[in-house]
Design goal:
- The chain is α+β, with helices and mostly antiparallel strands.
- The chain is built from three helices and six strands.
- The chain has two domains: 33 residues, N-terminal domain of TfIIb (Single Sheet), CATH 2.20.25; 99 residues, K homology (KH) domain (GMP Synthetase, Chain A, domain 3, 2-Layer Sandwich), CATH 3.30.300.20.
- The strands form two sheets. Strands 1-2-3 form a three-stranded antiparallel sheet, with no helix packed on it.
- Strand 1 and strand 2 form a beta hairpin.
């Protein structure tokens, strides 16, 4: 896996991923996301991928899955994340709560590399979920 990050100006950078995509990163949020927001987005993408994959393999009729992520950071430098809360809002038809709970747990404890790496680094990550019946 490879990514190149190139300085553009001031606190603006462009990341070019090994898979051929680019991401604008900007500490001032004028033309891109802040670096720590990008880290949260990566965590959200990693764990959401797992949850949706597990639910589909479990034959759950999922129509939407949104990971709402909220985080606290240390007051001093380095301003690392101290706690991250990942709340899944899963919408589908006749979803089984136990299966969704299992999918979230498996992602958190076994599959999501980003989550597991952050936790090993001392970040507390709390996972929760809610179900919405699709119309």
């Amino acid at each position: 896996m490879k990514t190149d990050v190139t300085w553009q100006e001031d606190v603006h950078f462009t990341a070019e991923t090994g898979s051929g995509f680019s991401i604008e990163i900007d500490g001032n949020q004028k033309v891109g996301v802040r670096p720590m927001e990008l880290l949260l987005a990566g965590l959200g993408g990693c764990t959401s991928y797992d949850v949706v994959n597990i639910l589909k393999k479990s034959r759950q009729d999922v129509v939407s899955c949104v990971a709402k992520i909220d985080a606290d950071r240390a007051d001093s430098v380095p301003a690392v994340f101290t706690e991250i809360r990942v709340h899944f809002v899963v919408t589908g038809r006749n979803l089984k709560e136990k299966i969704v709970e299992r999918a979230v747990k498996l992602s958190a404890e076994e599959y999501c590399s980003a989550s597991l790496m952050l936790e090993k680094g001392g970040v507390k990550i709390v996972h929760s979920f809610e179900l919405i019946e699709a119309q």
